[in-house]
Amino acid sequence: FTYEFANEGFASSFGNVDSDEVLLTSYIGEYENIRIPDVYMIDGSSYNVELFIGDDVAPEGDYGVFANNTTIKNVYIDESVGFNDVLYIDEDSVRGLFYGCVNLETAVIENENVTNANLMFWNNSSNVKVYVPGDSTTYETLSETSNVGNLFKK
User: Are strands 39-42 and 74-77 parallel, antiparallel or unpaired?
Assistant: First the structure.
């Protein structure tokens, strides 16, 4: 399959006017196969990308950028994409990232430093193929997470 460059279809926010980062808060696009780039272009300016990881204890269960998305099938996340977790601020957390993504088939995560993957694939297909850098913290973390279907080293 071919990944669509995900420079549209996201709700986003900025920490402040001087920030060099964009926080992608929700995917509302129509592409099934998407790539999250390290850098996001908005009006000719480049911003480092962070994905919102939400608050699973909130009444609405707002897990984050892809939570309960039924459109995406294949997601590729570049190496330097950050994860902005509102509960575990000091961790590289992907907690609940694909929560409820019932049609997700493949996730490729290039980041080598993920330390929290709790509920990452909760409430979706157990057949999701997950590709991460071998011999990395991310691989170790995901291999110890019970809800990861099929984990592969890249």
Answer: unpaired
What integer pLDDT is reported at residue 62 of this predicted model? Answer: 60
Integer Cα distance of 53 and 114 in angstroms = 13
Question: Would you place residue 4 in the very low, low, confident or very high pLDDT band (cuts 50, 70, 90)?
Answer: very low
Q: What are phi and psi of 57, to 5 degrees?
A: -95, -5
> How far is it, in rounded angstroms, from Cα 147 to Cα 98?
11
The angle at the Cα of 147, spanning 105 to 5, to the nearest 5 degrees, equals 35
CA-CA distance, 153 to 104, in Å (whole number)?
A: 19
Phi, psi of 72 (to 5 degrees): -65, 140
Q: Determine the straight-line distance between the first and last CA of the chain, rounded to whole angstroms.
A: 17
DSSP strand pairing (45-55 vs 62-64):
antiparallel
pLDDT band at 146 (very low <50, low <70, confident <90, very high): low
**DSSP conformation class of 93:** B
Name the strand (E) or helix (H) holding 82.
strand 82-85
